[in-house]
């Protein structure tokens, strides 16, 4: 574990959670008389991300001595190439998350979520693109059907 990276990533995730929460407030409200609108789920995700990033930050400070001991042991074992690869994955996921937030209202839930999940799965495990495609499609479809058809909620529609 890298103490500095944990602190920085917790701050980045807090800002991302705040951004998600604020952007979720901009999603058009449901025209139906339902308590659950299209902005509720992203707002909950944003709040959860902020809370978890605060927990990570507090744990990083609280267990500073433990992290330093672990860091010294793993520093000898860690490879710079692996570290660069992890940073690349981190930034790809962060950038794709921001793009997801910005494009959700414009091109709709189904397309945006499918593309986001596909990119995320491919970033984490490149060799299995068919599996990534199927899982992203099934997840997106299941959430859409469950939220819109079963619960009667609204999600941003298709652009056409």
TrEMBL record:
Keyword Membrane annotated: yes
Protein's organism: Ureibacillus thermosphaericus
Keywords: Membrane, Transmembrane, Transmembrane helix
Domain of life from the UniProt record: Bacteria
Domain DUF1468: 8-156
Protein name in UniProt: Putative tricarboxylic transport membrane protein
Stretches that traverse the bilayer: 39-58, 89-117, 129-151
């Amino acid at each position: 574990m890298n103490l500095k990276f944990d602190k920085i990533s917790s701050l980045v995730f807090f800002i991302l959670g705040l951004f998600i929460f604020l952007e979720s407030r901009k999603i058009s409200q449901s025209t139906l008389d339902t308590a659950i609108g299209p902005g509720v789920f992203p707002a909950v995700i944003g709040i959860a991300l902020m809370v978890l990033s605060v927990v990570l930050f507090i744990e990083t400070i609280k267990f500073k001595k433990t992290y330093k001991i672990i860091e010294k042991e793993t520093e000898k074992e860690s490879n710079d190439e692996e570290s660069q690869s992890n940073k690349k994955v981190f930034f790809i996921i962060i950038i794709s998350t921001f793009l997801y937030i910005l494009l959700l209202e414009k091109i709709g839930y189904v397309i945006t979520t499918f593309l986001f999940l596909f990119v995320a799965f491919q970033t984490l495990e490149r060799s299995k693109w068919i599996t990534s495609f199927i899982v992203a499609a099934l997840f997106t479809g299941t959430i859409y059907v469950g939220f819109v058809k079963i619960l009667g909620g609204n999600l941003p529609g298709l652009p056409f």
